[in-house]
Structures are given as structure tokens and as C-alpha cells.
Amino acid sequence: MISQITKGIKITVKTSFEGTYFKNHKIQFAFSYEITIENQGKDYVQLDSRHWEIKDALNGLELVDGEGVLGRKPIIKPGEKHSYSSGCLLTSPFGSMKGYYNMINFSTTKRFKVVIPTFKLSAPFAIN
């Protein structure tokens, strides 16, 4: 588990290897991750959009941008948390992800970025 706090918003990530699959006649390594977003600040905030950088040991970098998370733009009250689970497929048993959320502070109406810390994706059988 890895955590980081940016401007009063704590991001915690837990990862898991889910197995191997064949997709488009190639082996794929499936990983899941659970993210908890905790508002440790004094103001209501809303997660507006996300940016991911997904690195695969074989295929380089994939960038993913989108609105909200899982089709939602959660509003997180002070002292509350929002958690969700998602996943990705890699073409190698090793990789990493990092990124940021674009958030809106309801008190100031200002937008700000919250860092999603770099987390490693690795299949247990491939660890030396």
C-alpha cells in the first residue's frame, strides 16, 4: 500500500495481480487497484477528471485521460473518503502507474491537482 497527501487530499493505493489472459492472440497480465481518496481538508471537494500514465516494461507509456472515475464525479466532504476499484492489462508482468486527479474546491471554486503516487504492478511469479 502506498499513500500521498496533496493539498489536504490523501490518496492511498492497494494493488493486486489478478492473473494472465489471452487477448488479441497475446498474453496479457491483469492487475487491479483500489484507490481511496480521503478529504483531510476543511472544504468540500469534487473529483472532476483524471490523468494516468501507465508504464509497461515492454510497451512503453500509455496516457489515459477522462472525466471522473468509473463514470462518477464524487463530492467528498471534509473528513470523508471515496474508494473505488479498477484495473489494467499489461503485456509484461511488470509495470507502474501514476497520475493525478483534477479537483474542484467548492469554497473557493478553484481547481487543483492531486497527485496519485507512482505504484508498481508486478506479478508475484516474476519477482526475483
Automatic annotation (TrEMBL):
Pfam families: DUF525. Residues 3-128 form the ApaG domain. InterPro entries: ApaG_domain, ApaG_sf. One of its GO terms (biological process) is error-free translesion synthesis. This is Co2+/Mg2+ efflux protein ApaG. SUPFAM superfamilies: ApaG-like (SSF110069). PANTHER family: F-BOX ONLY PROTEIN 3 (PTHR14289), POLYMERASE DELTA-INTERACTING PROTEIN 2 (PTHR14289:SF16). It comes from Paenimyroides tangerinum.
